[in-house]
Amino acid sequence: MSPGDSSHFGCNPRGRERGASPASALGWPVVDGEQQHTRAEVQVRMTALVRGRVQGVGFRWWTRRRALELGLAGWARNLADGRVEVVAEGPRERCERLRDLLAGPGAPGHVDAVDDRHEPATGNLKGFATA
């Protein structure tokens, strides 16, 4: 076997298996034969808890409108302790944009803080509801 022989361990000189795409060689997800290029395409479920004066001021309806404009699915609901829970699924970048809008100056009422977490999307949400 010569140093330039690409058959060693079934890999080519670039370290990929023969026939493997660059995306799969790097461990990136491949969908329909094409790699996902940005983290925006990764589907997530964001749960955000919004604290402040956010009940009784149209905050949930405003959130619904912003979420639908961003193409997100989920819900916004009042919690007994005065916070609003927002659950949204979609591309990570769009969920992060919604989170920024929730904390921004254009949100109804007065937002003191937004605590959020991301998990893998379940894919079972349709539309955006308020409760």
Please explain how this structure is put together:
The protein starts with 21 loop residues before the first helix and ends with a strand. The longest helix has 12 residues, at 92-103. It is built from 3 helices and 7 strands. It folds into 2 domains: 8-37, no CATH class; 39-130, Alpha-Beta Plaits (2-Layer Sandwich), CATH 3.30.70. The protein has a 5-stranded mixed sheet, with helices on one face. A two-stranded antiparallel sheet has the order 1-2. A hairpin with a 5-residue loop joins strand 4 and strand 5. It is α+β, with helices and mostly antiparallel strands and 131 residues long. The protein has helices at residues 22-25, 59-69, 92-103, and strands spanning 30-31, 34-35, 43-53, 73-78, 84-91, 110-120, 128-130.
Compact summary:
With 131 residues, the protein is of the alpha+beta class.
Name of the CATH architecture of the largest domain: 2-Layer Sandwich
Please bin the fraction of helical residues.
Answer: 10-25%
Cα Rg = 21 Å
The main pleated sheet reads as: 5 strands, mixed
**Tally of individual domains:** 2
